[in-house]
Each structure stands twice: as structure tokens, then as C-alpha cells.
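cron nightly-structures :: item 1 of 1
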Amino acid sequence: MKKIIFATSNEGKMREIRQILADLPMEVLSMKEAGMDVDIVEDGKTFEENARIKAETIRDHIRAAGEGSALSAFREAIVLADDSGLEIDWLNKEPGVYSARYMGEDTSYDIKNAHLIRRLDGVPDEKRTARFVCVIAAALPEGGTKTCRGTIEGRIGYSPAGENGFGYDPIFYVPEFGCTTAQLPPERKNQVSHRGKALQAMKEQIRSLL
């Protein structure tokens, strides 16, 4: 069976990814499951640049592995990576590409979310506009990299709500649905979220390669 390696060890993200890619005839593995622990320097200025850096770094790591090594089994794998984040218009699109590293990588999202809500104290609904952005990059084994982008528009709520998401989901309110993305049922979220849209687009590109 052909394989996809997704350049993440985030369990919440992998759960969503597997649900969305479940109908592809391919095994989907995280970096950890593929036996890789690679230090990736995300020094891009855009979501596209960072997604490409992650996917291409893992593909090159696999290519550099010697014959007979455990990684040689992944030489024909497609490497996917995403770079995603939250853009808050009132805060000049912070945290943006630094969303995962905002306030420090080891800082809990409970603390990050509370901090962002405090920074928007007194800001009215119409000026709390925000969006989630996700770019998926696919580094192909024969060379070349494809990217797809997805977004979802909303605004920052006044308090966290919901248990279904992760990261900034509990404070991202979508007026169209009357709830946060953390309150959406997983199947519905995968249809409308930034990651869901980007992965669905990438899935169609992958199908064309099979």
C-alpha cells in the first residue's frame, strides 16, 4: 500500500487528518509512527513557505537515509505538511505564522487563548474579525512540491467554548454556525474548517497521481 507521511506529531491534528483522508487507498503515518524525529527550522515568512519547508525537509531526510535503513521503506511515500494559524485583524493579523510558537511553544493554549481574549478587551463584535488559514504542502517522491490553501472566516469570542477542537478552536466563533469551531461535531468541522478545505483540495490532487 502506498504511504503518506504527515510531518507532525500533533495527535489532535493527526486525528483530523486521518478522518479526512480515510477514503484514500493509502496508509497515513505521523513522523513519530514512521520513526522520525527531525528538527525542522520553520523560518518562512508565509504559511506556504513553512509548509513547503516542513514537507521538503522530511522528504530529503528520507532520501538521505542509506539503503537497508528503516526509512528506505518510505522512499516512495508522499510527504504532507501543513502550516496553519490564526489571523486576528485587530492585532495586525497576529499570531499568524507564529501561532504555534506564540508566547512560547510550551505555553498551553488555555493561557494563549486567555491572553488573546484579554488583548481584545473592549473591542466590539464587528472588529473582532479573524480567520484560520491552512496551507498543505505535498513533497512528491520523484521531486516537486504542490500546495493547497484553505481558510475559514469568523471572529474571536469573549470566552472559550467547546471540547471538540484543539489549539485556538475554543475562542474562534463562526457566526454562520452560531458556535466556536470547538463546538462543531468533528465531521462537520472537517467539512468547513481551514484544514478540512485544504486537505480536501490536496486529496483530489493526490488522487490524480494514483
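cron nightly-structures :: done
DSSP finds five helices and eight strands in the chain.
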